[in-house]
UniProtKB/TrEMBL annotation:
Organism for this UniProt entry: Heracleum sosnowskyi
SUPFAM superfamilies per record: Eukaryotic type KH-domain (KH-domain type I), Nucleic acid-binding proteins, Ribonuclease PH domain 2-like, Ribosomal protein S5 domain 2-like
Main EC class the enzyme belongs to: transferase
Coiled-coil segments on the chain, per record: none
Name of this chain's protein: polyribonucleotide nucleotidyltransferase
One GO CC term, this protein: mitochondrion
Predominant location category: plastid
Residue stretches of biased makeup (Polar residues): 835-848
Length: 937
């Protein structure tokens, strides 16, 4: 940096004339050319000597060795292997990201997560929350892939990345010490992914290790693990393949001594099993934290404890004296909005009184006497104190500065922070000592519940669920596969969800005006929790082939809105006619510790169905969803140092009783769910066809499926390689028409079947094409149209005529050969009998014979015949006509006629117009020269 500055300011060894004298002097000390030269500026002797003396403390000349010296020492690398479950994870630091406060890589198998922690140099304005931001990103290159979008790079965070950001943030935030206001950022990337070892639990552990190694002041080391239940065995950090068989997906984070966060989903798992899983996870976390503390002792950085700035203790006393009585009255107001306004008015009153008494300075926290600036100020030098009345060498008068600190005043932000803490203290004291909550309920009492279904007439299903001052409007929409949610993630670039719940929390639900935009991280997290809670009760895709979307809009909020979405979503699914397996309810549990400040011993008091204020001022937010038999989803956040298993056991037991009460109230819904498909819901018909027939439905380039949709007016056709076909329509008529067409296209005709009143669609010189079913045609050759000889098909039939036909053959390509003559009475039985007993000898003569089977004889390129005893030659795929020759001369003409017969590579036989041609042409699908066959009857 110094070299760059000198080179830009001193060109060719000369100082820049644009720089001031002081800067010129400093720069000449950095230029070797001027090391022995004298300054060219002019000052009086006194000021020159003083100037030189002042700067001599800060600047020295750099010699050539200083400028050209380089550092060659390599970075020191620290690593440790930590046992987790049945394998080890590798933690490394010191070799990447050395300019960050801390940077670590955590490796499990071939999955590598890289995490950094950085803090701003200057603290931000004090606030009631820790300024922490977490960003997690999965690089597609980690799995050897790239994004499916146009930009071919990772963009905004996807929903599952947002969920992992929350998993990282929630356990770390309670461990941050109060009073630290330097903005902190945690960045986490997945640089390698092997498809077996999930990166989310690794990211939580990597973030906890990075925070422990950095200067960021925190109370303890945090780590995270995933627990699966495979059979009856709990597995720590199971692989993705093992998770496919797991009945539980639990992610747990905590410290060596307590649990900070759990989140997971299961299929009606009993509370006892969940507690066992938590215990296994806590043991795994404890082992990781012990190893990390050993690593911190080796290479951890000193914590920035001196940066912690807490409000003065005297301020707490002042606020309690001014607002104590008012807080007791305000916290007894049951309604949220009036209580909030009363507390806001009380806060303004406290601020006004302290300001009038001179305790609050709105501009600055400290009042510092203004010094008289010197001519040449330098903040790094030691200022010289001169006795009053004397002057220094430069005749510059300097007034003495007092060394006593000025009185500390309270800032406006400090007053607001302290008022909030005092309010929480009074709320907790009221619950612990009085046994009553803000709205007058007992600790285990549930708020009043009412619900109604069918609120929106045009929606496929709707429900309004109200619990106290929390209200959710749930709406269900049914659709086909086109409505499914596509996910672009690291594992499967084309993953599809047939059920998803989207949660919306507008600012109006809390009586505020705010910005509306993309879903917040909180909305994504709450929506996923409610979605996973309802997923176990959904029917299988085979029994209910719809894509299901649930929208939960929070219209009022005073705590536990995500659990209201679970209750409302369950009722809306029933109202939409989805055959769910049962009902699901959700409840949010809270906790207040009877701490020493209330005269207690720390005994926890568990609260059922908490409100917003109890969530903010309490010590726990534990959401549990399920029915009376088991749990389907859960999420717990802790605002204190953590909780123990006995506390969690008590909370789960109380939550089970609460769910039973809520389910009982949901059963009283008025009006009740309709439990039948809405008339506005689409109709979906699932049919099974032969897998090889699917291409007939699609057609070339999708032309056939498009024509079916246009012709019938249905919404869509979804085909699968296994032969499953789903037809989506808005009305029954269009659905039945499409079913008829597809059935006809994919039907498997059986030789010998008779089709009545079939329409002739087109006529060719060699026969007529007859539609035996919608979209399915066959060729009735001219020889099979009539018992009499016909020169042209047009002589007896025209397009649009209806005839009865019999299927006499289906070739390898699925082409149909029809016969009308087979259904007509035989006009000359004796002649027919005679012809049926004749056969051809090897020399071409005709001899009477009654064959058991129809046999084919192959004509060579020279016209001679060869015996072929096969019933059906493989090369044959079309017929022209069969004859019964009576003269050997007629047979000798055979090869010549067949040889001159035109054909096409596509297999369509071009007739020469001679209706008496006594042969048919077989052809191969690969376009080779066709062979000529004789049919002997």
């Amino acid at each position: 940096m110094l070299m760059n500055s000198s080179s830009s300011s001193c060109l060719y060894g000369r100082p820049s004339p644009l720089l001031p004298h002081a800067n010129r002097c400093k720069l000449t000390h950095l230029c070797p050319t001027f090391l022995n030269s004298k300054p060219t500026y002019s000052l009086n002797s006194t000021r020159t000597s003083r100037f030189t003396r002042r700067n001599s403390f800060r600047i020295r000349a750099l010699d050539s060795s200083d400028v050209l010296q380089t550092t060659t020492e390599s970075p020191q690398r620290f690593s440790v292997q930590i046992p987790v479950g049945d394998r080890h994870i590798l933690v490394e630091t010191g070799h990447m990201g050395r300019q960050a406060s801390a940077a670590v890589t955590v490796t499990d198998g071939e999955t590598i997560v890289y995490t950094t922690v950085c803090m701003s140099d200057v603290p931000s304005e004090p606030s009631d929350f820790f300024p922490l931001s977490v960003h997690y990103q999965e690089r597609f290159s980690a799995a050897g892939k790239t994004s499916g979008g146009f930009f071919k790079r990772e963009g905004r965070a996807k929903d599952h990345e947002v969920l992992i950001c929350r998993l990282i943030d929630r356990p770390l935030r309670p461990t941050m010490l109060k009073g630290f206001y330097h903005e902190t950022q945690i960045l986490s990337w997945v640089f390698s992914y092997d498809g077996l070892h999930s990166p989310d639990s690794l990211a939580v552990t990597a973030a906890g290790i990075a925070v422990a190694l950095s200067e960021l002041p925190s109370s303890d080391v945090v780590a995270g693990v995933r627990i699966g239940l495979i059979g009856d065995k709990f597995v720590v950090n199971p692989t993705t393949k093992e998770m496919e068989q797991s009945k539980l997906d639990l992610l747990l984070a905590g410290t060596e001594s307590a649990i900070l966060m759990i989140e997971g989903y299961c299929d009606f798992l009993p509370e006892e099993k969940l507690l066992q899983a938590v215990e296994v996870g806590q043991e795994a976390v404890r082992a990781i934290c012990k190893e990390v503390k050993t690593l911190v002792k080796k290479c951890g950085k000193p914590k920035m404890l001196d940066a912690i700035k807490l409000p003065p203790p005297e301020l707490y006393q002042f606020v309690e004296e001014i607002a104590g009585d008012g807080l007791v009255k305000a916290l007894q107001i049951k309604k949220k909005i009036p209580r909030r306004k009363a507390l806001s008015s009380l806060e303004d009153n406290v601020l006004t009184i302290l300001t009038e008494e001179g305790y609050v300075n709105k501009d600055e926290t400290f009042v510092v006497a203004e010094p008289v600036p010197g001519v040449f100020e330098d903040e790094d030098e030691d200022e010289e104190i001169v006795v009053d009345g004397e002057v220094d060498e430069g005749d510059v008068h300097i007034k003495p500065v007092s060394k006593r600190p000025t009185p500390l005043l309270f800032s406006e932000v400090d007053v607001k922070l302290v008022f909030k803490e005092v309010t929480s203290k009074y709320l907790r004291k009221r619950i612990v000592e009085g046994g009553k909550r803000s709205d007058g309920r007992t600790p285990d009492e549930i708020r009043v519940i009412n619900s109604q279904c069918g609120l929106l007439p045009r929606a496929h299903g709707s429900a309004l669920f109200t619990r106290g001052e929390t209200q959710a409007l749930a709406v269900v929409t049914l659709g086909d596969k086109q409505m499914a949610q596509r996910i672009d993630n690291l594992v499967d670039l084309d993953d599809v969800k047939r059920f998803y719940l989207q949660y919306c929390f507008p600012p109006s639900c809390v009586g505020e005006a705010g910005r509306m935009g993309a879903p917040s991280r909180r909305e994504v997290g709450h929506g996923m929790l409610a979605e996973r809670a309802l997923e176990p009760i959904l029917p299988s895709e085979e029994s209910f082939p719809y894509t299901v979307r649930v929208e939960s809009t929070i219209t009022e909020s005073n705590g536990s809105s995500s659990m209201a979405s679970v209750c409302g979503g369950c009722l809306a699914l029933q109202d939409a006619g989805v055959p769910v397996k049962g009902s699901i309810a959700g409840i949010a549990m809270g906790m207040v510790l009877d701490t020493k400040e209330f005269g207690g011993d720390g005994t926890p008091l568990i609260l059922s169905d908490i409100t917003g204020s109890e969530d903010a001022s309490g010590d726990m937010d534990f959401k549990v969803a399920g029915n009376e038999h088991g749990i389907t989803a859960f999420q717990m956040d802790i605002k204190v140092g953590g909780i123990t298993l006995p506390i969690m056991k008590q909370a789960l037991s109380q939550a089970k009783d609460g769910r039973k009460q809520i389910l009982a109230e949901m059963s009283k819904c008025s009006p009740p769910p309709s439990k039948s498909l809405s008339e506005y819901a689409p109709l979906i018909h699932v049919m099974k066809v032969k897998a090889s027939k699917v291409n007939l439905i699609i057609g070339s380039g999708g032309k056939k499926v498009k024509s079916i949709i246009e012709e019938t007016g249905i919404e869509g056709i979804d085909t699968h390689d296994n032969g499953i076909v789903k037809i989506t329509a808005r009305d029954q008529a269009s659905l039945e028409k499409a079913i008829s067409i597809i059935s006809s296209l994919t039907m498997v005709p059986v030789v010998g079947e008779i089709y009545r009143n079939c329409e002739i669609k087109s006529i060719a010189p060699y026969g007529a094409f007859v539609e035996i079913a919608p979209g399915r045609e066959g060729l009735c050759h001219i020889s099979e149209l009539s018992a009499d000889w016909l020169a042209k098909a047009e002589d007896a039939f025209k397009v649009g005529d209806h005839v009865d036909v019999k299927l006499i053959e289906v070739n390898e390509k699925g082409q149909l050969r029809l016969s009308r003559k087979a259904l007509l009475p035989d006009p000359d039985p004796e002649k027919s009998e005679k012809n049926s007993t004749s056969s051809l000898n090897k020399d071409g003569s005709v001899s009477p014979k009654t064959p058991d089977k129809v046999k084919f004889k192959k004509a060579s390129s020279t016209g001679s015949l060869a015996d072929a005893n096969a019933e059906h030659p493989k090369e044959k795929s079309a017929y022209v006509r069969s004859i019964s020759p009576t003269k050997s001369s007629d047979v000798k003409k055979l090869s010549g006629i067949a040889k001159d017969r035109p054909y096409t590579k596509k297999g369509k036989i071009e007739d020469s117009g001679r209706g008496a041609d006594p042969c048919f042409v077989g052809f191969r699908s690969n376009g080779e020269q066709p062979e000529r066959w004789l049919m002997i009857t």
